[in-house]
Amino acid sequence: MLKMIVLFIFMIIEVAYGTRLTLDERRQKILAIVDEELSEVSRLAKTQDFKSPDTLFRIAELNLEKARLFREVENEQYLAIPPEERARLNKEEYFSKSRKFFESANDAAQVVVKKFPSYSGIGDVYYILAYNLKELGRNEEARKYFKMASGTSKDPKISLKSNLALADYYYNDKKYQEAIPLYEATINRADDKWWTKDAFNLAWSYYRVRNYQRAISLMKEVHQKSGGKYVDMRSQVERDIGIFYVDANLLDEAVLFYDKNGLNYTEQFVKISAVITSQGRFDQAEKLLEKVKSMEKDRNRRNEIMMAQLNLFDKYNKIPAHLIVCRELVDQHLNSPLEKNHLERLSFHVNKKAAELQKAAASDLYNSVPKTKAQKAKESIAYFELAAKLNPDEKADKVFYQAETSYVAGDFGLAIKLYIDAFDYAKIKGNKKIMSQSLEGMLSSLGQSSLSKNVADKYYIQVYSRFIEVDANSERASAIFIKLFNAQFDAKDIAGAEATMAKFSKNFPSDFKTQEGMLAKIMEHYRAKKDYLSVKKYVERINNGEFKISNKYAEALKSLMTKIQIEGVQQSLEKGDKATALRGYHQIYVSSESTPKAKMNAAYNLAALYFEMGDTVQSSQWATTALNEMDAADVAKFSDSFLSMAAGYFLRQGFDQSADLSDRMLSKLCRENSSNKPVAYKNAIFIALANADVNKALEVRSKSKSCGIPDQTIAEVSLEMTKELVKLKRWEKVQMILEELESNSRNYPNLIRPYEDLRKEFLAIGSDEEAKKISEKQNRFYREAKAQKLELPVDALDLIAHRMLKSVEDKRLRLDQLTLSFPEDLFNSTVKTKLQVLDQMASEVNEIQKIGSGKGIVDAYRHVIFAYESFAKSLRDFVPLGKSPEYVESFKKAMTEVHEPILQNARKQRSEIRKLILDNKILSVSNFDVLFSEAEVGKRYLTEKEAILMDRGGRR
Amino acid sequence: MKFLLILAFLVSCSSKNKAIKAPETVSNEAFKKEKPLTNAQVSDYYKESAKSINPALQDETLDRLSQSELANYSSSSDPLLDISLKCLRGDFKSAFSTAALYFNRYQKVAAYWNQVANCHLNSGAHRKALLFYNKALEVKPNYVPALNNIGVMYSRQGMDQKALIAFEKANKESRFSKTPRFNLARLYLVYGLVDLALPLFQGLLSESSGDVDLLNAVATAYVLKGEFEKAKSYYQNVPNTEWGRAEIGLNLALTLKKLGQEEEAQKVLKKIAAPQSIGLKRYYVFVKSQLGVSE
What we know:
The complex is a heterodimer. By secondary structure, chain A is an all-alpha fold. Chain A has 46 helices and no strands. Chain B contains 15 helices and no strands. Chains A and B meet through α29, α30, α31, α32 and α34 of A and α3, α5, α6, α7 and α8 of B.
């Protein structure tokens, strides 16, 4: 009862529900008829108390019909909803109404099945149940009831439909062998509109069991029958028959089929390839496409095939093949543009592959398999190249990506090349971003330790030169300039290096140091090549301010110019070609282009060369020129050479030249600390004196103090000068020099004699006071020299000795003046006095002897000897006046005893002095007085001839 | 001599732009240096000897020869002789030019420098002379002619004591060199050191017995010693044509006088030409007074 109530309620609800749906007019009419009958049948069933299986069966059929109607509407409404929205909806809700009717139909049929299992129409009820369950998605139950319907239904149509439903189930379950007989049975017995559809499934079933011939044959029949009363399955056949042909390896027949039916076989095959590709049958798809491609002549269709190939190769990652197709298409496009669609798809493939492969190359995944990594990079680069061809506007980008790929793959050499290309393309397009990124890439690549030197060397210039195109002012640019310059220079790209240098100087005008470094290299290059013209041009540019350089470098530069000017000549000199060198130095000197330094150098070398030739006059002139143009330090440096020249001039009788050179040297060396300065000083003065040029000697001497000449040297030359000055009676100068020398007590011994000449001159002109002062000086000098134990010259000793002789002479005079006379007391007193004076004289002689003057000793002895002899003679000859003869005789006898010892003493002294003279070989004019007797005095050896000059050593 | 190759400095002063022309005709031959001769390669004595009344020192010196005697010498292939002759003839400029011309060849030869020095000494340039004598001694230490000539130089300057030292040193270096002995003996005799002079003169005379100056010197030595007979014996070997020279005739006359040969003495005295030097003039007066000849 409850079920009945449920069924009833169900029927009422369905009526009410039905009004809410919008049905088209046809459906509304059908529904109205169905509802009317359903209402009638329901009422009847109620009156039959639900015991009539026919009525219940009819209720089931009517509800089923309603369910179908509503299901159609629901389907339409559901499918009308936008997919995105539809996805969010609860599908069950949209199909709830039809579901109710299906369930109602089912309930009714279930009642029949349960209550009336032997019902004659039970097979049809099973079918309704099967159908409803199928619609409700309860396929297992549906399949069960289809089988039951097939076996029990007396209606052949129901049986047929059930078999067909079962065939479909098998087919869907890929149980083709089970499906085939059911389908075969169906299509053989039925000829309704669904035949084509069912045959289509049967054909597929044949195909699945590899019965290609039957499959193809049936497909062709389906195709043939489609249309008219049959469901039109042509499109499906046309779509699928190709697969059959392909698998049956009957492509030619397929083509015939397509041609016969006016179909584009390419399109079909392409579709097929997609299908079989989706089935994972890549090789088969590849072969199919390749075959079709070889057959297709139409460009667009052929391209379509290649597009399919791309998809295929992409799908199973067959890169080389993919790349080949891409290349072919790109080449084709370059010859004649592809269709837009093809171009877009090709571009997609190319860019996609390029990116994928780049990513793979960059991945750590392949680090352990470098060859694979490199291969992927290579392929990526190839794709980017194609991409660039497809889109020339983005060529810079694509090439940049190529470079990046090479970089990540570690092929830095290729990366640099590609970065450079990218930079250049970007530059054309004004793409600063890529330019900048490319530069960074280049620099980074260059900095990689794994980059070989040879490769790096190849790219330095290209990279750095591009860098400074973009950035010529930054701190980094400064460093790049230097690198570029050096790279260019090392690569012997001198013009490039020069351009870089010029640009650097323009952008970094205050960086003297770098500019100098560059200039030095460039100029040295030209110098080494002997391209002096270029060097000179640079000098001019520097002088014009084009390059800023420090003073120090300016000096070095001038030095270089000099070096250049001299170099050729120097080489001649080094080769021993002195004649050429001589002419070369002349040319350098007279050339207006020569630097002062070069001229100076030339002058010096000319002096040296002429010196070698023995041409004193020329050598001297050039030495003078060189000296004038040298600074003091240079003269000091080459003073040995100059001294050699000066000495050489002298030895070659070039006295004026020698003196002049020495003087000029001194003038230059005056403030220098050179050991040759005193030598030059002495030479200058001595040679001037030798030339009898006292004024010149004085002039040189006037520099003594200011030039810091050692006192000892000054004294040495000054004493020599005084000798000449005395001869010339230049007394003021004599006095001046001697007074200067007095400042050093060590000069005292040597001043005594020169002062004597001056003293005599003062006496001569009546300046007794001055003479006296000098005399006192001389005595003081002598005393102090003795005290200091300084060695005294012989002439000074002679002078002092003779000065002491004055006292001896005075005493001798006094003796002469003491005349003997009587009376006797007076006589005795006078004798006594004379003896005392003689003693004094002897004592003084001893003192003189101590002085060490030979001449002084001889003179002293002479005085004493003469005094004794004179005294003795006076005693001998004295006759007392007014005395008796006896007294006189007695007196004379007594005197004999007195004067004889005195004479004896005189003789003794003669003997002494004789010995002294001979032993010491004293050459005194007084020798004759003491060596010879009075009788012999006066005889002399005199000759007009002087001492004899010896020319040769003589025959031995 | 080093050449100035590369200078690491700059001289800023400008040079005068002289109109200097490079000698186009100079060849490298001009730079080829003659290999200097060594002392051993040069004969250090005179091979020729002129006929002279004073032949004693002729292998060592031409200094005692008269101009007429020098005329017998001609400029030969010996540059040193050439220099010497020019110098003794008073052609100093030419002598020095020749010396300069032969500098390269003779720069290591002491005789060359000695000759140059002699020439300077004879020209009155004592200082130059001394420098070149020193050069000779540098080339050949203790070179006897240079030592002797330094003595001569001092002697000419009136510094006989210094001259004596030089002569003695020269004599000590070579006892067989005649000129130093001659000069030494002469100096001794001038200063009355007869006992020192006489052996030296006699030794020289024994080597060249006819040398008039030596005969005169020995004779004079005996005069000074008061040994007039011996003196006369040497004077007798002096050609009487030479008696008219005051330096010979005066002491000869005195000798004759001392030997009582008044007439002969007077004859000699009359032959004597008036001397030039002050010393001889005074001595002339002295001798005349000794011979009782009034002025």
